[in-house]
Amino acid sequence: MLESRYLRRLLAPLILSFFAIGWYKFSEGTLANANQIVLNTANFAVYVQQTQYDGYLTATRYICYVVVYVGLALFWYNLVKIVEAKERNG
Amino acid sequence: MVLSPVFSESWAEVYAFFALGGFILGWVAQRGNYCFVNAMTSIFTTRSFERFGALLILFGLSALGCGLLVAFGVIPAVDQYYFNYFAGWYILVGSFIFGFGAALAGGCNLSMLYRAASGYVQNWIELFGMMIGTYVFAVGIWPFQQYTMEKGIFSTTMGGYVEYLPYDIFHSVSPMAIYITTLMLGLPLVLLGIYLQQYTKKKWLANLRIAPQGLPISMTISPQGQVLGEEKTKTSWKKEVKDLLLLKKPYGTNLATVLLALDIILVYIAGAGYTFNYLVITSSDGGRFFEYILMLFGVNLFTNTPWFNDSLPIVDPSTLMVIMLCVGAFTASFLSGDFKIRIPREKKRLLIGFLGGMLVGIGVRVALGCNVGLMWTNFAQLGYDGIIFLFGMLGGIYLAVKVQERL
Amino acid sequence: MSEELKTKNPDVVIDVRGESCPVPEMEASKKLKKMKAGEVLEVLTDHQPAVDVTLPSLAKNLGYPFTVIKDGDTYKVRILKVK
């Protein structure tokens, strides 16, 4: 069983990556639904223009890509370091 | 009043700048251990004005940076004052409640988020308490507060230029009026901040002379007795920069202050004319996390619940700012080796954290914003609500310190 | 005297690991008030701001020498109460 500090170093970046994907998927799904609801109720004070809506999703998607790559890179780097440390200590 | 964009940007670019602003905010605040509540509790617990002085410098630099950009014609004045808040009883009452709750719970909105991202369980509980407090405010307090705002009961009835100091003082939003007001507001804050820091340092030096000779005042040593670092050792600036870049050393308070001031100016310029172009975090979006959780279960508060139905969830640029704040803080914490799940030894702290978080949620909503979204931002807006908030928050924190001493 | 602060067993130990500001400095301040001159207080903490800022501020404000020992993830901040 891995020590807690090793587990921390491996799990934390993975959770970050999953969080980024989860946030993007959540935004994509719920935002469209929410905008449709306010349109159906003619609540134009709250309705968001398509350009802004698309801009948000575009920005979030690219940020998600970056965060996922960084998370996976950190995970891989720490995995290699931990395996090396384990091999050195026998 | 009509907003006047300076740069032609797509919405994706605006969101990207806000995300970057949030990332920098989280990263710098985590590395600098920047906490507004800590800065104020230090006045009462350790009699230190060092961090409070840094806060005043931050407010002053923000006012100077944003104000001078308008005075020199780079940013239109309307983009600075368009979102200025209504002033009223709720700013003072809300900031008092907020200060009390934040000091009890162990963090302002900024430190709550970056510490939660660094693994502090107490701040997770505080954040959850804040979400519940936001809902309690929305159904129990907002209808009454909104009524007093509409009717002008101990409240102004509009924001914008009415809450803009150049207009209040000179009845003008001309470049000269803005220039003079900026200097009148910004310079004394910076000078007072520097004075308070120097005063504290002189006091410490005087105490040093009283301490017995031959004693190390401070040093960090390993269990084997090897000295890892000594306070009085002068290191070269190249090594300092290298240590800071490699995350071996936390950022100093004044370095963090300057970086945060630059961050608010970045967001101010990038968002001018498009949206609320200041740093704003849990003012709306930490509190709205409760709404997002309920959306997973098909409950849409924005359709029928007071306050929540004022805007569409998620798509506000400040939502992305909050998310990236957490990502920035987590990344800084993780890369520096500081990330760890920390559970308080005394479990009563978790209950105190939750109750404090609820008061934070209620307080920031009543005050129309938090220490970042209202107090700090309002200095950059050349408004006066930030001054009211500062005094209210100090009062609440003082009471919380007295209560904490008895707990 | 400097060796004493490093090697002497502390007279009072408070464990505030997991706590964040203002708990470490508040607990330290409360204990110091009750201690006698010449006694050493040791604060066990893993909260970086307490180690970097608030506990040193407390000690400097009171004019008490202090030292920080790093032991894994935990910091031991030792403060000597002087007259």
List the keywords:
A: mainly alpha, 2 helices, C: alpha+beta, 4-stranded mixed sheet, 4 strands, 40% helix
Describe this structure in words.
The complex is a heterotrimer of chains A (90), B (407) and C (83). Chain A has 90 residues and is mainly α. Chain A has two helices and no strands. Helices cover 86% and strands 0% of the residues of chain A. Chain A is rod-shaped. Chain B has 407 residues and is mostly helical. Chain B has a two-stranded antiparallel ribbon. In chain B, a hairpin with a 5-residue loop joins strand 1 (219-221) and strand 2. The longest helix of chain B is centred in the middle third of the chain and has 36 residues, at 175-210. The model of chain B is unreliable at 213-217 (pLDDT under 50). By secondary structure, chain C is an alpha+beta fold. Chain C is built from three helices and four strands. In chain C, helix 2 runs parallel beside helix 3. In chain C, a hairpin with a 2-residue loop joins strand 3 and strand 4. Chains in contact: A-B, B-C. Chains B and C meet through helix 2, helix 7, helix 10, strand 1 and helix 18 of B and helix 1, helix 2, helix 3 and strand 3 of C.
Provide the low-confidence segments of chain C as ranges. none
Q: How many strands in all of chain B?
A: 2
The assigned structural class of chain C equals alpha+beta
Assembly state of the chains shown? heterotrimer
| Beta-strand share of residues of chain B | under 5%
Order of helices and strands of chain B: HHHHHHHHHHEEHHHHHHHH
Biggest interface in this structure? B-C, 52 and 44 residues
What is the residue-mean pLDDT of chain C, rounded to a whole number?
Answer: 86
Q: What proportion of the residues of chain C is helical, as a percent range? A: 25-40%
Largest sheet of chain C: 4 strands, mixed
Strands side by side in the biggest sheet of chain C: 1-2-4-3
Question: What fraction of the residues of chain C are assigned to beta strands by DSSP?
Answer: 25-35%
Radius of gyration of chain B: 21 Å
How much helicity do the residues of chain B have? 55-70%
Radius of gyration of chain C: 11 Å
For the terminal residues of chain B, how far apart are their CA atoms? Answer: 50 Å
Dominant shape of chain C: globular
Overall mean pLDDT of chain B stands at 87
